[in-house]
Amino acid sequence: MTRTARTDGPHARRAPRTGGIGLALAGGGPLGGIYEVGALLALDDSVAGLDLTALDVYVGVSSGGFVAAALANGLSPAQMFDLFIAEGRGAAMKPHLFRRPALREFARRAIALPRLAARAAGQAARDPFRRGIAASLATLARAMPTGVFDQGALDDFLAALFAAPGRTNDFRALRRRLLLVATDLDTGASVAFGAPGHDHVPISRAIEASSALPGLYPPVQIDGRHYVDGALNKTLHASLALDAGVRLLFCVNPLVPFDASGASAGGRLGGATLHHGGLPLVLAQTFRAFIHSRMRAGMDKYAQQYPDASVVLLEPARADADMFLASIFSYAERERLCARAFQTTRASLRERAGELGPLFAAHGLALRDARLADPTRRVADALNDPRPLRPAPRRRGVRHAARELAHTLDHLERHLAALR
Fold it and tell me: What is the DSSP string of 110-130?
């Protein structure tokens, strides 16, 4: 029986306010999530008045869905760093969560193999010289697994994470609007879990569906439908937040085409150009160029469709060889890559200060110029920042004051832990 969500209490979801602030996160495998945590750490550290756990709308696709769901559940970028990235602090998310073999899928296909083999043999015997061989191969192809890895362990991990006090695995119990996008395999249509009619699905299950990259992970079955990666149709799905009334939208896209002409990759490319690196680098560049050009086309349309909204896009530098050459499923160098994202984002904010300053001011935000100008500032400084209470907004209340106090105590606790 479907449970009706509460409409009161600490997690009661409110409708997004027109003119609010939102966040849209693209995918990119574990590497994409690592980059997004670093970028959000820099954003949180460099913009006064911005609380990334108290935005109006969150939109996530694939690995971006995981980060968006954590923020909507009150997990700050600093907390996500401690939980998922910091190897020295015993990060809870381990690589094996992404690499567990899809044994159930293998077994299901293996059980069907004798029947399919018999049918293929019959097809070949009936017409061996014309269409028999092709039909037989097509029949046998149905025995191939639809994915190599199983996301069940990840689902269990996320369900446990969101079951902790103060969090929820129920879209309807969130205070903020969260939309996680997947693709319906049978129709090719995008589906936003968390929207009306799709908000009864557990958040952890929606993340699993949104990140089910075809070929690597089997489609995820929900209510009799099968879903795969939400990036098949769009890279960001930022329009979902803009349609909800957001007027300042931060977007983070971890994957960009690599500019080898402006990079210094040494011998890591195997030569002066990408083709010297062989098929893996050619495919990686092709994939990145495809999804990035599609995203840019969407961004151009947003300017016309939502003239009253402002979109701030944060991406890696295109000449960054480290971000390009790291596997999108890499987890071994997560702290270094997160630090890279932190610095890249800081550099982007610093370079665009003239444009972003007035824009942020219109929404009650301000760039911390002194921090952005400090060349020695690192991730550790952002993690240990005992930030004072933010300036009071126009409308204050008991709930707002409680959130401010909790935010400050969280930073103070990390600072004291670092001193110990």
Answer: HHHHHHHHHHHHHHHHHSTTT
Q: How many CA atoms lie within 13 A of 12 on its CB side?
A: 7
Q: Radius of gyration (Cα) for the chain, nearest Å?
A: 23
pLDDT at residue 273, as a whole number: 74
| C-alpha to C-alpha distance for 352 and 54, rounded to whole angstroms | 24
Which whole-number Å values give the CA distances from 184 to 60, 66, 226, 261, 315, in the listed order?
A: 16, 19, 6, 39, 28
pLDDT digits (tens, 9 = 90+) for 212-225: 988 788 889 999 99
- Judge whether 212 and 194 are in contact, CB under 8 Å: no
Left if phi > 0, otherwise alpha if psi is -120 to 50, otherwise beta: which for 208? alpha
Alpha helix positions (H), 163-221: 203-210
Per-residue model confidence as pLDDT tens digits over 321-366? 777 877 656 666 788 889 999 999 999 999 999 999 999 999 999 9
DSSP run (H or E) holding 313 = strand 310-314
Alpha carbon distance 346, 372 (integer Å) = 6
Token match 């954003």: residue? 43
Length of the chain counted residue by residue: 420
Q: Is 147 helix (H, G, I), strand (E, B) or coil?
A: coil
3-state SS class at 222: strand
d(CA 214, CA 151): 12
Cα-based distances in Å from 186 to 205, 217, 229, 269, 351: 19, 16, 13, 39, 45
The two beta strands, 47-48 and 366-367, are antiparallel
- In three-state secondary structure terms, 353 is helix
Instruction: Give the list of residues 6+ apart from residue 269 with CB closer than 8 angstroms, or none.
Output: 260, 276, 277, 281, 321, 325
Tokens found for residue 276:
């010297």
Q: Can you tell me the distance from the alpha carbon of 213 to that of 230, in angstroms, rounded to the nearest whole number?
A: 9
Computed over every residue of the chain, the mean pLDDT equals 79
* pTM (global) more than 0.85: no
Among the residue ranges 50-54, 183-187, 281-285, 345-349, the one predicted with the least confidence is 281-285
- pLDDT tier at 145, thresholds 50, 70, 90: low
Q: Helices (H), strands (E): how many in the chain? A: 16, 10
Q: pLDDT, tens digit, for every residue of 61-93?
A: 999 999 999 999 999 999 999 888 876 554 455
Block residue for tokens 């697994």: 145
CA dihedral angle for residue 246, residue 250, residue 252, residue 257, rounded to 10 degrees? 100
Which pair of structure tokens corresponds to residue 138? 């097509």
Rounded to 10 degrees, the C-alpha dihedral 41/42/46/52 comes to: -40
